[in-house]
Amino acid sequence: xxxxxxxxxxxxxxxxxxxxxxxxxxxxxxxxxxxxxxxxxxxxxxxxxxxxxxxxxxxxxxxxxxxxxxxxxxxxxxxxxxxxxxxxxxxxxxxxxxxxxxxxxxxxxxxxxxxxxxxxxxxxxxxxxxxxxxxxxxxxxxxxxxxxxxxxxxxxxxxxxxxxxxxxxxxxxxxxxxxxxxxxxxxxxxxxxxxxxxxxxxxxxxxxxxxxxxxxxxxxxxxxxxxxxxxxxxxxxxxxxxxxxxxxxxxxxxxxxxxxxxxxxxxxxxxxxxxxxxxxxxxxxxxxxxxxxxxxxxxxxxxxxxxxxxxxxxxxxxxxxxxxxxxxxxxxxxxxxxxxxxxxxxxxxxxxxxxxxxxxxxxxxxxxxxxxxxxxxxxxxxxxxxxxxxxxxxxxxxxxxxxxxxxxxxxxxxxxxxxxxxxxxxxxxxxxxxxxxxxxxxxxxxxxxxxxxxxxxxxxxxxxxxxxxxxxxxxxxxxxxxxxxxxxxxxxxxxxxxxxxxxxxxxxxxxxxxxxxxxxxxxxxxxxxxxxxxxxxxxxxxxxxxxxxxxxxxxxxxxxxxxxxxxxxxxxxxxxxxxxxxxxxxxxxxxxxxxxxxxxxxxxxxxxxxxxxxxxxxxxxxxxxxxxxxxxxxxxxxxxxxxxxxxxxxxxxxxxxxxxxxxxxxxxxxxxxxxxxxxx
Length: 680
Fold this sequence. Notes:
Elements: H1 3-41, E1 45-50, E2 55-58, H2 61-66, H3 70-73, H4 78-81, H5 84-98, E3 103-110, E4 116-128, E5 131-141, H6 143-178, H7 181-185, H8 188-197, E6 201-207, E7 213-219, E8 229-230, E9 236-237, H9 248-259, E10 264-271, E11 277-289, E12 294-304, H10 306-327, E13 332-336, E14 342-345, H11 347-352, H12 366-375, H13 386-395, E15 404-407, E16 413-420, E17 426-432, H14 434-457, H15 459-488, H16 495-523, E18 531-534, H17 535-545, H18 547-552, E19 556-560, E20 567-570, H19 572-589, E21 599-606, E22 611-618, H20 625-628, H21 646-656, E23 661-665, E24 671-678
Parallel strand pairs: 19-21
Antiparallel strand pairs: 1-2, 1-5, 3-4, 4-5, 6-7, 6-12, 8-9, 10-11, 11-12, 13-14, 13-17, 15-16, 16-17, 18-20, 21-22, 22-24, 23-24
């Protein structure tokens, strides 16, 4: 082999090395990004710590890290769990999170199990009424990631150095090659093929008419390990004597294709000089001679894929571990890439959504899966309006803070949480909350039953109101009835006057019937359905029921209502009960005041597009400090009588309507209770 050939082969070797390193680097980066998406979605050490730095909740990862059973950890202060060195490492972070700051950083910490870990610490303060009550913690072991990053950094440094060295050598040899340009032209096609293949081993066989194969030349970094040699039959055979037994048929088929003038690319296993199994990708390009009508030469290039195959196997093993971890979750899990295509999911998802299970497959988009679930009738809210439901769901996808509750046709309730990842994808969790929903429904029925009992208990207050309301229409009936009797005894009774009087009697009777019917509705147990009502009528109706109680207690009532009807969506009986309770509480709160100082003001004000606010303001002593923090809790009362359930039931009713109930002490004395109702 001439110097030019050896020089060119060496150049090819260097270029192959650079390409292989770059390919390995890209593959490593892609694998790391893919694994990072899944690992970011998996919890590690999670829990909650209160203001006294006591562990209130944690998963069982803490048992392994702290070498103690979970039962002995819960309720313990962190200082008693941590070593002194460990506690000093995180003490400043604990002070920061308990002051309201969210912590998101990485530290190297030695745990009681003797393992020093790089961990990603995420401490999230828990606020209640603006005060920090404790914090949630999420601790991920990122040791392997840190080590991989360090290994990647070192690999990149080595790669960069090799590239610089190779570049320097290439520049030096290029100067020498310029003087040999004429000689190289004769081998230009051969070197072009070698350059295209960028292989670890390149060689050429000459094929003679009798089938003898002679190696013309070979080069590359693997030439010392795999060099053509003369076999007993006089042929130069490279792979046949060292190929893996399971791949021999593949090699025979390859040789036949090459001799039939077909290029070939194959992958098979061989044993190297140390007896190790190596994976190779081998390219073959035949050279056809038209005059002889046969293949006269075969140029071959081989690449070593062993490291790549091992990396692929390791990657597949890691994927299997992750799949097992996902399948062990009690919640459904979905991972979508930046294009909203499904990357990974667990079997729990298929169990939760059996009708849409066929659409849950890698590559499917979130919209396709959502649409399949809606169109199959699996989602109760989407039945008969699948397109509209899908559009509403997509409008809030993904969400940084919100969650969607979905009722399925089989009666199950699922809460869906979809959070964006740092890589632009989306992690979805699906949790079965059927038991919680059933408990809430049971509590709602119990509250409704108790509210009914309380309404019946209010009958003593309404009895006088009913008597007062009925006295007027009954008086009209009696007076007009007696007048008609007198006129009927006249010799020439005026029938037109009598008819008008009878009409007045009928109107008064209808008024009395409406009063009795309304009171009956108030105390009757009924299904809490919402209807469009006029808030003005609701307020005036309750004030009429309360009129006798107001008069008996010497309370002046002032009503301030905006002009015109106030259209709202509510259950009239329940909201009347809330308003009746607040008025009765206001009357009771002013018992220590002189009769002339007892004033109750009822106002309705607009809350814009959200609805209206109703305020009941009394001139009493205000809410006492002893019950101020728990006034809306059951069985809490400052009165000598009563169960203390009125405000608790009232808040439950208002919140079930989508509103809220709260109070504030007035600057000049007394208290104001406010609640909101929504427009249709």
